[in-house]
């Protein structure tokens, strides 16, 4: 309210009133500039050095990048991220949207069900990983239980199978985050403009058409949030892989995040770790920047 | 809090605001009605998904109530034969975490001291940022938002060493404020994203009308934006709380012996390298460590239904 | 000033509970649960009696890798802990960075040079100076066997590769699992250590894993070692992938499996399950490596905080090397003391055997660092080897390709 009165005062107040929004935004912007973009620059420089246990600045040119692309594990990690990332994002969005729409139908005990859907987010994967590992293990988990019920030929051994193990990571990852995506869509649904829906309903549109033509398009910003969150989770999936498969069988479930951590910290090859981080960021940028750009350009 | 604000909002006489009844005549479900058979299917699907989400919890709970011998003997999916609460007691107060046998108890406070300020500040900042970026647009605002957004994708492993150097330089290394700052830096992108995308759906005409009535920047935020921010604030708080509470990497790297958060303790309990693994205690500890977050979900979840002004303002 | 404070707090040891903060030591380690952390408490008590407070900074996970990440952040921030648990080549790496304090004075006073085995000193010293105090010696080339199964099938303790294969075959024919194993890279590598030692002998092991001689790495002997890994793979059950080592131990304990190839820390699982050495389970060296000890050793290094080693840091290091602590700690840990002049009468049969064999191997020069546990070559190379060993064990390479990949991977990591 102070602003209101001072705003009506002299030109000094006008200046303040005009600049205020930008002033409010500037601290956030400044810290991001330093602690995100400054550090990206630092990593970029590091990727051309011979850093091993700690950063050092003996420049070696492209050597780290050459080594990186010579490593079989890196190729596997990148391919796995593509499989894992796309499946994870699509499935989470589909389940999240479905559950949000269903839960928005004046469901009894909505709060209770919502909490059940959300709780996996609360648990740290350090331990839930063990529970999943047991559940997926053919010797003691689902396969063993179903067989003990009498279905002797039932087989579910993906986690032990190099070809299929990456999909078990998807199952566990979807379990963890799809509830949160549901919450994001639910928040979106609750903020929707009902006028158009009423109009369309009067015109005799079916429920399905109503959702497809009117509700879902309005959820576009929520989709964008979900996509960013999920892409972020997919790229950073580290705990999950370590707890569930440790990158195995063999190197079948290695992801760029586990690769980067292991080279930077476990293997004392910080230069290669930095190079992998740079490549990873550039890949993310190549996918995200056009997406963000097109999302932001279309203004109503 | 939300009720106070919405009361204030109606008093602001911008437009008569109808208080949303608790069981939502709001949003999309205000329009769509479903019939009997369809409802049965809906409940069935919802129940099925409940099973999917509850399964790992079942494994954890069941095994946290067994003696260790039953687990190592192979019955990992079965119900306990000997029910026991001692793993829970052990995880809470007597399990060996490092040199002292303290259980997880002393580490809870460390985590709470870190999480509460970090979540509060980043949510408020995110709301303000979102408000500026949608209702007080300026030249280049899209760029600013784009840069904030892309910051969400920075891998944390990458920032560890430079961040340690920075904290060391300003003397925040190994302190709780240092940890709060780190979480703030890497949480701001997301909270801005949530609020910005939510406020985008919010009718700008209301803001303009209030401006014409002479309301200032902060007044509009408090009286018009905040009361309708319930659902998204819930989403944002849940996200931030969960991430910060469960963070291990920063918590371990930027804390001292006296400020180690809960996750570090839980990790120490679970990941001993060559010791005997007490799975039952591990599961009990894990569930225990998740309780504060669950509490937040339950408490915050109520505001999902309450702060629903966005829909009804237009009604 | 600090000395005065330290002395003062010594004098007031009984009266001061928390006031002696000037002489506290902050210790970063990853012994966080169960017996080993309890054993560390002995050290804490010892220091408390001298008026020195113990600030505990435990970070578990990944056999110390999490703790090493934290250490890097702490050192970069200019806030290193007073003392840190380090393994093998990490000690050398940190010494190279100039981060470790010189412990010569403490070592000379304690006469470490005469009692610590040469092979261990190689890691405790850098450039001729002591930089770390060894706490224990783990040896990794052990076989743990279920005695009941062996007796029932009439299997004697195998002493050669062929006998081992015959024994495993017998177990397999009886319908039980021959080898309990967890498919994690470090576990695969632990077996590979023993297999290479058994196949090629000590000199070959040294040439391949320590000197990293490309000829040895790509040699027919190495190909044969990989062949033997394939043989062992045939005796492992189908669900081995990703299994934790202690669940594999449980299989031997429960009589589902006959053998486990694992370091001496596995003993704790057996004892904890109420099993008795020589009665319920047997411990013996991997066939063909009876005279050798492949080891890894945990050590504590002091990080520089100023120019000299502070009195409380010296006190900590001295306490770690004391015979009493070495004996009592290693009894709990399952390993053996890192000095050759103590009595281990209180140890169980396996522990006594392990200590005697370690002493013998130390005297004859048969004690050599374990590749699988980072005591033969630096982390970068070790992990590069893991990649190949694990891939081969999972059937991604045949033996010839694996040997060639090993040569390439080592070259790439150097």
How would you describe this structure to a colleague?
The complex is a heterotrimer of chains A (300), B (315) and C (414). Chain A has one domain: MetI-like fold, CATH 1.10.3720.10. Chain A is built from 14 helices and no strands. Helix content of chain A is 73%, strand content 0%. In chain A, α3 (63-70) crosses α14 (270-297), α4 (72-103) runs parallel beside α8 (165-190) and α13 (256-266) runs antiparallel to α14 (270-297). The longest helix of chain A is centred in the first third of the chain and has 36 residues, at 11-46. Chain B has 315 residues and is mainly alpha-helical. Chain B is built from 15 helices and no strands. Chain C folds into two domains: 2-137 and 296-353, D-Maltodextrin-Binding Protein, domain 2; 142-294 and 370-413, D-Maltodextrin-Binding Protein, domain 2, CATH 3.40.190. Helix content of chain C is 51%, strand content 14%. Chain C is built from 19 helices and 15 strands. Chain C has helices at 2-11, 34-49, 65-76, 88-96, 104-110, 112-115, 118-124, 147-152, 161-173, 185-210, 214-217, 220-233, 245-253, 266-272, 311-321, 323-333, 349-364, 379-393, 399-413; strands at residues 25-29, 54-58, 83-87, 125-126, 129-130, 132-134, 136-139, 142-146, 177-179, 257-261, 281-285, 293-296, 298-302, 336-337, 367-369. Chain C has a five-stranded mixed beta sheet with strand order 2-1-3-13-6, with helices on both faces. In chain C, a hairpin with a 2-residue loop joins β4 and β5 (129-130). In chain C, α2 packs antiparallel against α16, α10 (185-210) runs antiparallel to α12 (220-233) and α12 packs across α19 (399-413). The chains are: A mainly alpha (300), B mainly alpha (315), C alpha/beta (414). At the A-B interface, α1, α2, α4, α5 and α6 of A face α2, α5, α6, α7 and α8 of B.
């Amino acid at each position: 309210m102070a602003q209101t009165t001072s705003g009506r005062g002299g030109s000094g107040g006008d200046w303040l009133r005009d600049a205020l929004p930008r002033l409010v935004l500037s601290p956030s912007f400044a810290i991001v500039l330093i602690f995100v973009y400054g550090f990206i620059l630092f990593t970029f420089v590091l990727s051309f050095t011979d850093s091993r246990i700690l950063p050092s600045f003996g420049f070696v040119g492209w050597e780290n990048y050459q080594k990186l692309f010579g490593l079989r594990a890196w190729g596997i990690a990148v391919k796995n991220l593509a499989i894992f990332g796309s499946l994870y994002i699509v499935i989470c969005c589909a389940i999240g949207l479905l559950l949000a729409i269903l839960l928005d139908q004046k469901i009894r005990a909505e709060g209770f069900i919502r909490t059940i859907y959300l709780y996996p987010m609360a648990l740290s994967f350090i331990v839930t990983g063990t529970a999943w590992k047991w559940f997926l293990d053919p010797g003691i988990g689902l396969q063993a239980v179903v067989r003990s019920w009498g279905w002797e030929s039932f087989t579910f051994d993906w986690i032990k199978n190099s070809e299929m193990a990456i999909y078990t990571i998807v199952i566990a990852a979807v379990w963890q985050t799809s509830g949160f995506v549901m919450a994001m869509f639910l928040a979106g649904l609750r903020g929707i403009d009902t006028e158009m829906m009423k109009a369309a309903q009067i015109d005799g549109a079916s429920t399905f058409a109503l959702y497809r033509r009117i509700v879902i398009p309005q959820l576009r910003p929520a989709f964008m949030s979900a996509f960013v969150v999920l892409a972020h989770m997919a790229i950073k999936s580290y705990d999950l892989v370590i707890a569930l498969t440790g990158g195995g069988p063999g190197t079948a479930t290695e992801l760029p995040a586990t690769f980067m951590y292991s080279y930077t910290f476990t293997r004392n090859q910080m230069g290669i770790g930095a190079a992998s981080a740079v490549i990873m960021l550039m890949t993310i940028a190549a996918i995200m920047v056009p997406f963000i750009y097109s999302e932001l350009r279309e203004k109503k | 809090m939300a009720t106070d604000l919405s009361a204030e909002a109606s008093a602001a006489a911008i437009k008569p605001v109808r208080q949303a009844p608790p069981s939502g005549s709001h949003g999309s479900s205000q329009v769509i009605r479903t019939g009997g058979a369809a409802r049965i299917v809906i409940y069935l699907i919802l129940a099925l998904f409940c099973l999917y989400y509850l399964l790992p919890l079942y494994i954890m709970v069941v095994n946290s109530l067994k003696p260790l011998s039953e687990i190592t003997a192979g019955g990992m999916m079965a119900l306990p034969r000997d029910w026991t609460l001692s793993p829970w007691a052990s995880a809470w107060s007597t399990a060996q975490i490092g040199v002292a046998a303290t259980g997880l108890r002393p580490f809870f406070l460390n985590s709470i001291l870190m999480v509460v300020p970090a979540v509060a500040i980043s949510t408020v900042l995110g709301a303000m940022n979102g408000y500026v970026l949608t209702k007080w647009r300026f030249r280049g605002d899209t760029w600013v938002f784009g840069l904030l957004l892309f910051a969400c994708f920075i891998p944390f492993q990458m920032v560890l060493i430079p961040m340690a150097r920075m904290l060391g330089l300003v003397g925040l290394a190994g302190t709780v404020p240092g940890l709060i700052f780190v979480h703030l830096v890497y949480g701001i992108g997301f909270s801005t994203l949530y609020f910005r995308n939510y406020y985008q759906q919010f009718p700008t005409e209301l803001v303009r009308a209030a401006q014409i009535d002479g309301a200032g920047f902060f007044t509009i935020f408090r009286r018009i934006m905040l009361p309708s921010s319930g659902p998204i604030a819930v989403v944002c708080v849940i996200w931030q709380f969960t991430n910060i509470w469960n963070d291990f990497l920063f918590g371990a790297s930027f804390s001292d012996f006296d400020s180690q958060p809960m996750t570090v303790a839980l990790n120490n309990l679970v990941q001993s390298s060559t010791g005997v693994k007490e799975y039952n205690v591990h599961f009990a500890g894990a569930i225990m460590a998740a309780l504060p977050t669950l509490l937040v979900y339950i408490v915050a979840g109520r505001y999902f239904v309450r702060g629903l002004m966005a829909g009804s303002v237009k009604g | 000033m600090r000395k005065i404070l330290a002395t003062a707090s010594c004098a007031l040891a009984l009266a001061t509970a928390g006031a002696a903060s000037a002489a506290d030591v902050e210790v970063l380690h990853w012994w966080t649960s169960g017996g080993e952390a309890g054993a560390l408490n002995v050290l804490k008590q010892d220091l408390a009696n001298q008026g020195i407070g113990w600030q505990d900074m435990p970070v578990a996970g990944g056999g110390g890798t999490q703790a090493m990440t934290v250490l890097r952040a702490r050192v970069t921030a200019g806030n290193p802990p007073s003392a840190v648990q380090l393994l093998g080549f990490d000690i050398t790496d940190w010494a190279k960075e100039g981060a470790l304090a010189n412990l010569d004075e403490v070592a000379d006073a304690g006469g470490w040079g005469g009692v610590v085995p040469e092979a261990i000193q190689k890691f405790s010293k850098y450039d001729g100076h002591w930089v770390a105090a060894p706490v224990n010696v783990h040896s990794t080339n052990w076989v743990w066997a279920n005695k009941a199964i062996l007796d029932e099938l009439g299997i004697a303790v195998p002493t050669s590769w062929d006998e081992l294969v015959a024994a495993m075959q017998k177990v397999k024919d009886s319908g039980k699992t021959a080898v309990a194993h967890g498919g994690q890279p470090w576990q695969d590598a632990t077996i590979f250590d023993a297999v290479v030692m058994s196949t090629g002998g000590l000199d070959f092991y040294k040439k391949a894993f320590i000197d990293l001689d490309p000829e040895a790495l790509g040699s027919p002997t190495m190909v044969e070692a990989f062949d033997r890994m394939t043989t062992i793979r045939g005796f492992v059950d189908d669900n081995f992938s990703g299994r934790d080592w202690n669940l594999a131990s449980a299989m031997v304990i429960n009589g589902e499996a006959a053998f486990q190839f694992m370091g001496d820390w596995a003993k704790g699982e057996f004892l904890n399950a109420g099993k008795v050495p020589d009665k319920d389970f047997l411990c013996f060296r991997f066939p063909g490596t009876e005279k050798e000890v492949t080891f890894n050793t945990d050590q504590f290094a002091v990080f520089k905080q100023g120019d000299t080693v502070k009195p409380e840091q010296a006190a900590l290091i001295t306490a770690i090397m004391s015979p009493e602590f070495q004996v009592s700690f290693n009894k709990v840990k399952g390993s053996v003391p890192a000095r050759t002049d103590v009595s281990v009468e209180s140890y169980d049969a396996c522990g006594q055997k392990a200590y005697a064999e370690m002493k013998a191997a130390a005297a004859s020069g048969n004690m050599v660092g374990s590749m699988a546990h980072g005591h033969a070559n630096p982390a970068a190379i070790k992990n590069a080897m893991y990649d190949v060993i694990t891939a081969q064990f999972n059937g991604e390479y045949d033996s010839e390709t694996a040997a060639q990949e090993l040569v390439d991977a080592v070259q790439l990591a150097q």
